[in-house]
Design goal:
185 residues; alpha+beta; Beta Polymerase, domain 2; 7 helices; globular
Amino acid sequence: MRVNENIVKLEYALEFALHLDKCTEYPILLAGGAVRDVLNGREIKDFDFFVDNRAKIALVDKSPYVFDKVSIEYYDNDLEAYNLSSTFLGSRGMQFMFTNMAPEIYIQDKFDIGLCKCWVNIKHGNLHLTEAYEKDVRDCTISVECNDRFNVEHIKRVQDKYLHHNVILNGDPFGLYRKLYENPF
């Protein structure tokens, strides 16, 4: 993908989110892969927006846009996900995650990959890079927290984009997650 296509996708997604941001007092954060990939010159696959659950009524129920609820197995009870239908970005072009905690805390504490722990506040345009993100960029690693949200497919997708980064599995004293990662079912 050419850089220009990335910019067009990013501008479209941010413009749309900024429009939605006017409908709610709660911040909308663009987080994870789209932010990571644009900062590192990689192709953007999709856009994941994180919003306080209290904004769901204004954004999903009262919005003129069609949001389709999706079930994502590796997310926990603190999150409800919706795809925005009919975007030129594709069927999974924009996803809105409504969280029961402050979105910043969710991203910081619940994201499993350090390289994904970054976000932009749509309203203010503030970019936030966590220590885990900065460490992964600096050390060319993909640090993964081994917990109940461990997702081999997600790790492999990130690794496919960042071929020269080594995967580091944190919290795996017995090597069980390493075995799962190396030999998925």
